[in-house]
Design a protein that fits this description.
Helix 2 (27-40) packs across helix 8, helix 5 packs across helix 7 (105-117) and helix 8 (120-134) runs parallel beside helix 15 (358-386). The protein has helices at residues 17-20, 27-40, 42-48, 59-71, 77-86, 88-94, 105-117, 120-134, 260-267, 290-298, 311-314, 319-322, 325-333, 337-346, 358-386, and strands at residues 142-151, 159-161, 212-214, 221-223, 232-242, 247-255, 279-283, 301-305. Helices cover 40% and strands 13% of the residues. The chain is globular. Residues 169-179 have low confidence and may be disordered. The protein is α/β, with parallel strands linked by helices and 387 residues long. Strands 1, 4, 5, 6, 7 and 8 form a 6-stranded mixed β-sheet that branches. Strands 2-3 form a two-stranded antiparallel ribbon. The protein is built from 15 helices and 8 strands.
């Protein structure tokens, strides 16, 4: 029998918001973990806000909303507010009632900036790790390190000569002279608008981080991951993963330099949370240098890094390390860290950051990694209960 279409004429609904969300929805166990983590952060929240004045957005609700933005790939705060306006699932997770008004996007962004100043992302990341430790998911002795490039929110045209880095020589105030575009090719160029997006020809100009700076994001640096790839303005994101469950135990962003990954591994080795006195640290062949291997060993670590193709002449790893079965296990396990990077770039909005400056990008990178850990903990806990 064909159903009859009826327009909604009732004003009130007697079904609660809690009943609208399925009991087995995957966000429910995640909400419980998030609430426990946010309860531990309550003293840090108190230090960020004044005792009097106009009430702001509750930081707990703000962080839950940011978590949904990462999970559901919401590209902007304005789109996030639109979702909160009509999406009952989002309202239930954040803690808004059905009749509660959503926030103005600019107000939401300004309140988020206050949390950026308080290092709340790192505190939230630590609280999530405490959840994993309480569930017995963390390994205290076997880890993996790796890094990736995070494309900056800046275009190539913003990378311009910086007089403070490279003072102009006499007679060369404008830098190298660029070759003119041939007359027969001008008709193929797009219409030029010098006020907004002028056409720029980079041929014949040597550009590097020692002479140029981005006018959009001065902290971004021109970098590329491998030979043959194009160089982009980027930051360097670093992770350290424990090998048992594939959870990230450290996350950090630094300026993109040629040695950023090795410098990070050596400098933070002694601060890995929950580590034993002697641990193993896996990595790819980028870490196979004499200085990096010596630095890791000096910090009480056994470097299980991959050897270069021409192993014996140039590798800093010898048979004393590779002959142990644990070396092969670390080489198999270390590839799981690429799953974290893949999730952060495809789901966590970290392929190209929407923020400027190392501090802001580091905050969002750390927070997105904490969200990945929440998803991973939920999946591992559910698999353990089903077994």
């Amino acid at each position: 029998m064909r159903g009859t279409e009826r327009e909604q004429v009732t004003m009130f609904s007697y079904v609660s918001l809690e009943e609208r969300i399925p009991a087995d929805h995957p966000l429910r166990p995640m909400r419980a973990m998030v609430d426990r983590a946010l309860a531990a952060l309550s003293p840090a929240f108190d230090a960020l806000y004044a005792d009097s004045g106009r009430p702001s957005i509750p930081p707990e609700q703000l962080l839950r909303a940011l978590l949904l933005q990462v999970l559901y790939i919401v590209r902007s705060e304005r789109q996030l507010m639109e979702q909160l306006d009509y999406n009952l699932l989002f309202r239930g997770f954040v803690g808004l009632g059905v009749d509660d008004a959503v926030w103005v996007p600019t107000v939401f962004s300004k309140n988020r900036d206050r949390l950026l100043e308080g290092e709340i992302a790192q505190a939230f990341f630590t609280a999530v790790l405490a959840e994993a430790r309480a569930a017995g998911l963390l390994s205290p002795e076997h880890f993996t390190v790796d890094g990736t490039l995070i494309q900056a929110w800046a275009g190539q045209k913003s990378f311009q000569r910086d007089p403070s880095k490279h003072p102009a020589k006499r007679g060369d105030d404008d830098g190298p002279t660029l070759p003119a575009v041939p007359e027969h090719r001008r008709k193929f160029l797009p219409p030029d608008d010098p006020r907004r997006n002028p056409t720029v020809n980079f041929h014949g100009e040597s550009r590097s981080n020692t002479t140029h700076t981005s006018t959009t994001d001065p902290e971004a640096r021109l970098a590329k991951k491998a030979t043959g790839q194009e160089a982009k303005l980027a930051f360097h994101g670093h992770l350290i993963m424990e090998n048992r469950s594939g959870l990230a135990v450290m996350a950090q962003v630094s300026p993109a330099t040629g040695t950023a990954e090795r410098d990070f591994a050596v400098s933070v080795a002694h601060t890995i949370p929950g580590r034993h006195e002697r641990i193993t640290l896996g990595g790819d062949k980028l870490y196979d240098t004499a200085a990096c291997v010596a630095g890791l060993r000096g910090e009480g670590m056994t470097p299980h890094v991959a050897q270069h193709e021409s192993a014996r002449p140039s590798s800093a790893i010898d048979d004393r390390t590779t002959r142990h079965p644990g070396y092969g296990v670390s080489q198999r396990k270390r590839k799981r860290i690429e799953e974290i990077f893949g999730w952060l770039k495809t789901i966590g909005l970290m392929r190209q950051t929407r923020h400027r400056g190392v501090d802001r990008v580091d905050w969002m990178f750390t927070f997105a990694t904490a969200v990945y850990n929440l998803v991973r903990i939920r999946n591992l806990t559910a698999a353990r209960e089903a077994a």
